[in-house]
Every structure is written in C-alpha cells, then in structure tokens.
Amino acid sequence: MRKFFLPNKNNGYKPYLLRKSALSIYTLILLLLNMFGGLLGIPEAMASTITPANIIQLTNQQRASAGLNTLSTDSRLSAAAQAKANNMFQEQYWDHFGPNGETPWMFISQAGYTYVYAGENLAKGFRTAEGVHEAWMASPTHRDNIMSNKYKDIGVAVVQGILEGKETTLVVQMFGNLTTEIYKADTPVKAVETPTPKPTILDKGEIKSISITNPKTGDLIKDANIDIKGETKNISGSYFVEILNKEQVVGEVESSSSTWEYDKESDWEEGEQKIVAQIKGQDIKSDEVVFTIDSTPPLVEKEKIAVKRTEEFFEITFEVKEDIESLKFISGDKTYDFEITEEGYAVLGISKSDIKERSLIIVSDKAGNIAEYDISEYFLDGDEQARSSFNFVLWVRDFFGTIDGISLAIVMFVFLLLAIEVYVYWRKGLLGKNSGGLFTLGAWWLIILVGIFKGFGGIIN
What are the phi and psi torsion angles at 439 (to 5°)? Predict the structure, then answer.
C-alpha cells in the first residue's frame, strides 16, 4: 500500500496514485461524471445550507451593519414566498411576473398581508445561502430591497423542484410593511462631561414639567433596544434629562427643545421596567411609566409535538404556553389555524393529501415575537422517519452522493496525497529536485477545484 500512497525508494519517490496515468483516470472520471452523471441517476447538487433561517439571518446582519432596523419574520410573507415558488414550478416560469398575470403582490395579498410597502427578490441554482446573499448584494435593485428602510417584515421560501427541465433550488425573499412608518436612524446627542447648565425659568407663573411620551404604561414591547421619548413644558435653553429605571440612573441626554429622546445604546433587560425622567439638577420629575420588554420568541417543546396518523388524516397536538397569541401551520402554499382546547392544547386535523414537502408551525406571542418550527420529518413514513434523526450523517451521505460531492471528494483525495508527497520530499531534502512535477500536479488540482466551485453559482431575478 505504501507504493500507492507514500513516496519511497520502491516507487521511485512517486506514489502510484499521483502518477500521470492516475491523474488521467481522475480527469476522465470527473468528465464523465459531470457530463453524464444525471443519466446515471446521480443528483446534481444538494443545497442543504440554503434555508429560510440562514437567508433571513444574513439579511438582518447586513442591515444591522448599516445601522438599519432588523426585519421580523412574518408567517404571511413566508406563506406568500412559498406560494410564489410553488407557482413558478407549476407554471414553469422564472420571473417576478407569471404567464397568467401572477404578480408578487398577488401572492402577498392572498396570504392575508395587507401591505403598504412590499418587495421581492428571487434566486435559483445556488449551493449556499452566502452565495445567494452575495449575488443579491452585488445587484443594485436586489440590494435596494435588502437595505430599504421601508420594510419591517420578511418571509423566505426555499423550494427544490424541476424548472424548465432542470432540477434546481428556488429562493423567494418577500419584504413588507403594514404601515406608512419607515425607519429613521436617529443619532442621539451624547451627554458631555460639562457643568450642567441651569434651565431658564420663566417668570410668568407657568408650571414647569417633564413627561414620557413613549413608551406608555402597560406597553408590551419586543424591541429590547427601544428609545425613551418625552417632552418638557415651560423650560427653555439647554438642559439634561436623566433617565431612572427602578430608581437607579441609567443614563442622560441633552436637549435644547421641548422634546427629547434617550437611546440606552444597549438592550433593556427582559421583564418589567419602571422608568422616570427628571431634569438634572432640578426637582422636576415625570410620572412613572411601567412597561414590559419581551424579546424572546415563544417556545414550543418540539419533542412534545404529537402527530397521530389515520388512513387519510394527520392530527397534530401540543401544549400551548400562556403567552402564545397565534398558531399557524403552513404546508406548501396553504396556511391553517390551530384550535385551542379548554385544556390548553393546540389541535389541528389535516388531510394527508394536503401535506407537502416542507411543513412549519409558526408561533407568535402577545409582544409580536415569532418562532418557526420545521416538523416536516413528523410526516415521514417508517424508514424515512428513522433516517431523519441522523440529519448530519444523511447530509454527508447525500452531498457526497451528488455530482458536486463526488467531484469534490476526488479532488480532496488528490490534495491529501499531494500534501503527503510535499511533506516527504521536504523531510528528505528532495523538494527542490521535484518542484517541477509538484507544480504541474498543483496546477492540475487548482484548475479542477476552480471548475468545481464555479458550478456553485446561480441566477438572481
């Protein structure tokens, strides 16, 4: 075996598996595989890294790095994106507008999302979520959607199928806003370490006061980075406002107008907040405002979700927590509402024919936080159900059972042999003498590698 893998005297310091004849065989296999692999039933690619969660995470990271608001996942936009992808496969088209007059806005409206602003990005044929996102960001029109300050919500669908005779992965990204309100990046004035100026006191008998206008007592807020806004009356000149939470000063802000806004520059803690604003250096305080921060997505214990089977129906059941406000089930392009029993259980009966490849439970709480649970594997039969518990092992098996996977495995095997050969030559002082052969082998390896990864690109629309 050493003759095949390791440079040594018996093979003339040239492993059999790295000789020209071996490279010719590797090249022939790669050519046949990539030209005729589909005829042999080997799938072209596995896009397992492209998921709605990954696309949304990359989008929000990009927006946050530019100081924009992050987008909330909306189940209606997710359903609209799923319906659009399914329609493209069904009607066999690749465009924002379908052959029968379909528009992105039609799918969004049909999902129950009454938008004021809306947008759509499309991609197909990519292998990674990063590849999709980078291609969108390189396109001015797609980048404008991702970086728009008009949007508050997002929904993404990733669907595999046959489009125009070729197996591919479609990514549909929907954006929306239910209001006319757009995001404005306010830069609050920082308090400076200077003596506190005395506010001008008016000598007309008016009552000087300060109040908090936002948030309001009783508010339940999911944005843990909320700014405190307020106003003053009968105070002029420059003044500082101190913000107290549970009687402890948490910060201050300077203002020279009748309104002020305090940015804590960090998240408020989860739970109840008791906020008071006061003019620094004066006995002028606002009424206490009590509000609650809830930025944690609602929890459903996935392992406790039960799916009962009959001949024609599935029945989905799980316990509902007190803070859950809305429960929806999405399979394909259809959305279903759960019924809540008096005992506190969510129940939904659904026909087997209505279960599609991807099935989700979408949960939202009273604060508007949304969580998504993929339970597609719950509807698999027998062996498929057992297989689903080995996702990583299956991914490795499935990926290296594709054209891309086999090609990459061959090239990485050659790279390992090449690394061993370089190491042995270096240890024996033969590196310079064999540099020409190593350069040729390295060039072959690099060309093949670039050729493989070139196929990891796709098309956007």
Answer: -65, -45
Instruction: Give kind and range of the element (H or E) at residue 422.
Output: helix 403-427
The sign of the CA dihedral 27, 28, 34, 35 is positive
Percent of the chain with pLDDT over 70: 82
Q: What are the tens digits of pLDDT across the range 229-256? A: 999 988 878 999 999 999 899 999 999 9
Question: Is the pLDDT at 190 greater than 50, yes or no?
Answer: no
Report the C-alpha gap between 179 and 181 in whole angstroms. 5
DSSP 246-262: TTEEEEEEEESSSEEEE
**With contact defined as beta carbons under 8 Å apart, do 156 and 175 qualify?**
no
CA distance 168 to 134: 19
With H, G, I as helix, E, B as strand and everything else as coil, classify residue 210: strand
Nearest to 278 by CA among 240, 312, 315: 240
Sheet holding 239-245, edge to edge: 220-221, 289-293, 271-279, 239-245, 248-255
**CA distance linking residue 206 with residue 439, whole number of Å:** 87
Q: Are 371 and 360 in contact (CB under 8 A)?
A: no
Q: How far apart are CA 273 and CA 176, in angstroms?
A: 31
> What is the Cα–Cα distance from 376 to 358, expressed in whole angstroms?
5
State the helix-helix crossing angle for 435-454 and 403-427, rounded to 10 degrees: 160
Global pTM reads: 0.44
Cα separation, 243 vs 241, whole angstroms? 7
Contact 177, 169 (CB under 8 A): no
Whole-angstrom distance, CA of residue 251 vs CA of residue 47 = 48
